[in-house]
Structure to design on (760 residues):
């Protein structure tokens, strides 16, 4: 950085300023983006959640629909077999072999059915077809007694056209859980003969394996299926599934795991709620309500007897949710980073252009300062010139004054001399001539006096450069001067008041100042008013930063409107009957002016006179 | 001419003496009186406003005088003029031949002329010869 006459301190200042401006501009531009980003995250988060909830609810609703859709054929099939027209002999295992073809074909076609059975009124199997694990359809000759099984006991009271659906549980063979576990739902319908006599029941085992697989499939989030008691039918934790049925597992229900949550979820059929940061979405499936709408035959609806009420839950834990949110925050963070980089660049450019502007202004200011100092220099020179001019003007006026004095005051006596001389020449006798001598003597004396006075005047004019300047203590100077008049002052009891509180000392010519003060005091005494007690006041003061000395009396005064112009002129006298040759004030003014001081007068007839000496630029 | 009366207002006593002698030489009948300043001259005029007999025909007026100078005297005279029962010719009589003084004098209608000192016997005779005149008079200098 070339320091174009800019001090190093200023450069540091500029750098600091640049940084400050950079930060300010950065904040100015970035803050709105930051706010928008935060708002965007919040808005996105909210939208995401709403979308998520509605999506999950839809998914649950789809699952529900899937269950219903898969179960509906069973209702229809049971109805079919209920209406099939079995006769009493069909419930005799020895006489019902003719059913093999019909039922076998049926089971082959329905691959989700794992068993087809007929039970007589006592609960004994009278007909049984199994679907083996390999998919083969085999008629079982080992018929079991199911009289002690809950599904038999639940269905003994079934009336015509009623269909029973069992809870989803695990298949048991001969009272023992089949392994691997086979989850299933049993659909049961009563069989009546043509006379309306109940013959037994038809039992179809609906294998829920595939159906549960379908429910478990494609779950981004944990899916839970509960029965009405809160037992797990589906859980991502497979150990919990059917734990209420498997003796070796620890029985655990949803209620036990999340008591307060179940409470809240239980109130409404379809709902979603937040619990400890987790999102829970729930819908209920009441078999009776959903399947009752299944049309059977000629607008007849199924009369479903079942306790089944399932609860479908989606559980989105906070970690998963946050992971989603984090990815969004991360993308917005990246956008912010990019914005920060761009804004920093822009701010830097802008602040730099500002700074160079300021630098330019600073340079301009320096030039201005230089110009100003040059101007001051010029002004000083001008002032000096003005001072010199004043002095020249003063000198000019003094010379003019000198000319006037010579012209008026010297011419008169010299012409008188020449007139007297010519009169002397023409004198008739000595007596006459002799009478002219005193006149001649008077004139020559006047000429002498005038020449002496002029010499004093000219000396002052010529002396002003060599005059000795010294520090003068005003008080002692004035005391000394007053001492010269001590007799007059005492005799006439003239009071002299002094006040030197404003200033006490001045650098000036002691001889001149003594002469000036002597003249002024002498005047004040000479022109005192005999009709009142005389007071002479001498005081110092400041006016416009200049030292001022005032000598004031309460004497007879002068009519300045008449004599204003002449009071400081040579041989001017204004008081009849009072001695004075009119030289004092003329000298005072000349002496003061020769040393750049001034004198002013103010006076009023009968009141008094005040002389004010103004010292220009005096220490 | 013989009964002319002069009034000289001038503080220079020697000049008064010279004028008295000069006038006496011209004619013993010419009266001349003196005052040493304008104030005394004005006071005299004021006291004799109505008595033309006591008033001079000619006033010779000096410029530089104490107490009241020639210009001031003319100012005072101006205010008295209507009351003065005599036509008085006033001439400035001064040692100044300064052109600015002469120009100033010409502006004053009460003045009849401008005389520069010294004035000789011939000069006074000349002046008397012109009296009474309405023309501006000044002696050669």
């Amino acid at each position: 950085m070339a320091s174009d006459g800019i001090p190093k301190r200023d450069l540091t200042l500029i750098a600091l300023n640049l940084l400050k401006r950079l930060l300010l501009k950065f904040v100015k531009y970035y803050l709105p983006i930051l706010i928008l980003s935060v708002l965007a995250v919040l808005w996105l988060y909210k939208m995401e959640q709403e979308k998520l909830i509605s999506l999950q609810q839809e998914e649950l609703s789809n699952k529900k629909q899937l269950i219903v859709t898969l179960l509906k054929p069973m209702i229809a099939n049971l109805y079919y077999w209920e209406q099939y027209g079995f006769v009493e002999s069909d419930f005799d295992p020895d006489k019902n072999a003719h059913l093999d073809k019909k039922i076998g074909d049926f089971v082959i076609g329905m691959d989700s059915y794992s068993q087809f059975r007929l039970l007589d009124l006592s609960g004994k199997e009278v007909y049984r077809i199994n679907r083996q694990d390999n998919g083969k359809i085999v008629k079982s000759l080992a018929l079991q007694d199911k009289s002690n099984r809950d599904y038999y006991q639940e269905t003994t009271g079934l009336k015509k056209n009623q269909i029973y659906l069992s809870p989803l549980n695990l298949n048991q063979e001969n009272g023992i859980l089949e392994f691997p576990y086979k989850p299933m739902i049993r659909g049961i319908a009563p069989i009546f003969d043509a006379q309306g006599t109940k013959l037994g029941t038809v039992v179809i085992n609906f294998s829920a394996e595939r159906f549960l697989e379908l429910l478990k499939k494609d779950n981004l989030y944990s899916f839970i299926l509960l029965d009405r008691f809160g037992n797990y039918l589906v859980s991502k934790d497979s150990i919990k599934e059917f734990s209420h049925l498997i003796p070796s597992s620890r029985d655990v229900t949803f209620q036990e795991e999340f008591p307060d949550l179940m409470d809240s979820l239980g109130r409404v059929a379809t709902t979603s709620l937040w619990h400890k940061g987790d999102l829970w979405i729930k819908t209920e499936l009441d078999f009776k309500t959903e399947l009752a709408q299944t049309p059977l035959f000629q607008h007849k609806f199924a009369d479903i007897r079942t306790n089944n009420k399932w609860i479908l839950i989606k559980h989105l834990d906070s970690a998963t949710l946050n992971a989603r949110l984090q990815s969004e925050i991360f993308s917005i963070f990246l956008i912010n980073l990019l914005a920060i980089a761009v804004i920093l660049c822009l701010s830097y450019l802008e602040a730099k252009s500002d700074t160079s502007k300021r630098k330019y202004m600073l340079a301009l200011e320096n030039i201005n300062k230089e110009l100003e100092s040059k101007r001051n220099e010029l002004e000083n020179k001008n002032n000096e010139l003005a001072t010199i001019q004043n002095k020249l003007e003063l000198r000019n006026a003094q010379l003019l004054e000198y000319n006037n004095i010579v012209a008026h005051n010297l011419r008169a006596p010299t012409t008188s001399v020449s007139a007297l001389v010519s009169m002397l020449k023409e004198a008739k006798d000595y007596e006459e001539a002799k009478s002219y001598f005193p006149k001649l003597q008077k004139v020559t004396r006047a000429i002498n006096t005038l020449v002496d006075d002029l010499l004093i005047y000219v000396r002052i004019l010529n002396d002003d450069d060599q005059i000795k300047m010294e520090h003068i203590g005003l008080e002692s100077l004035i005391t000394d001067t007053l001492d010269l008049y001590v007799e007059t002052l005492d005799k006439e009891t003239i009071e002299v008041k002094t006040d030197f509180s404003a200033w006490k000392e001045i650098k000036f010519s002691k001889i001149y100042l003594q002469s000036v003060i002597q003249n002024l005091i002498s005047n004040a005494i000479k022109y005192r008013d005999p009709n009142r007690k005389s007071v002479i006041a001498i005081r110092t003061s400041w006016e416009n930063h200049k030292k001022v000395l005032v000598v004031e009396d309460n004497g007879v005064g002068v009519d300045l409107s008449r004599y204003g112009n002449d009071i400081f002129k040579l041989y001017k006298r204004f008081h009849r009957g009072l001695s004075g040759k009119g030289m004092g004030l003329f000298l005072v003014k000349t002496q003061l002016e020769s040393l750049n001081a001034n004198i002013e007068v103010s006076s009023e007839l009968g009141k008094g006179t005040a002389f004010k000496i103004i010292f220009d630029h005096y220490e | 001419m013989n009964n002319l009366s002069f009034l000289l207002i001038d503080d220079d006593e020697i000049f008064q003496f010279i004028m008295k002698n000069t006038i006496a030489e011209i004619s013993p009948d010419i009266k001349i009186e003196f005052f040493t300043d304008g104030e005394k001259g004005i006071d005299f005029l004021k006291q004799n406003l109505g008595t033309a007999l006591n008033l001079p025909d000619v006033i010779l007026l000096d410029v530089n005088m104490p107490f009241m100078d020639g210009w001031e005297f003319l100012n005072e005279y101006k205010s008295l003029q209507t009351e003065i029962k005599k036509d008085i010719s006033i001439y400035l009589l001064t040692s100044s031949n300064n052109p600015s003084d002469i120009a100033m004098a010409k502006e004053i209608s009460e003045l009849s002329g401008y005389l520069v000192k010294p004035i000789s016997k011939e000069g006074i005779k000349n002046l008397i010869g012109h009296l009474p005149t309405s023309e501006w008079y000044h002696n050669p200098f």
